[in-house]
Design a protein that fits this description.
Length: about 100
Amino acid sequence: MNMPIFNEKKVDVLDVICDFAQVLKDVTKQEMIEHNTDYIEKVTSLNEKKERYRVIMEECPIERRKVIQGYIVDMMDKHSDEGDHFYLRGYRDCIALLHRLNLFK
């Protein structure tokens, strides 16, 4: 018995949705960069502070440097996770709204 070709490889729906959401997130970030002057100013400000930060970190004892760097990495990871969660929540809410309006079946 020949099986249809689509059964040869199983597709994880969650992987497809996550890939699609990542594409949407990338497009949204690009739009933010192009249209949000506050974001551009923050990036510029961070870039200007980067060298001063590097110099100060070199002056710190290694143990303090590790604590500061660990804190910054953890904070960035937390913010990234929150952003992903809120983005996907908005995506889910949009689908639920379309479904309730009988526009999504």
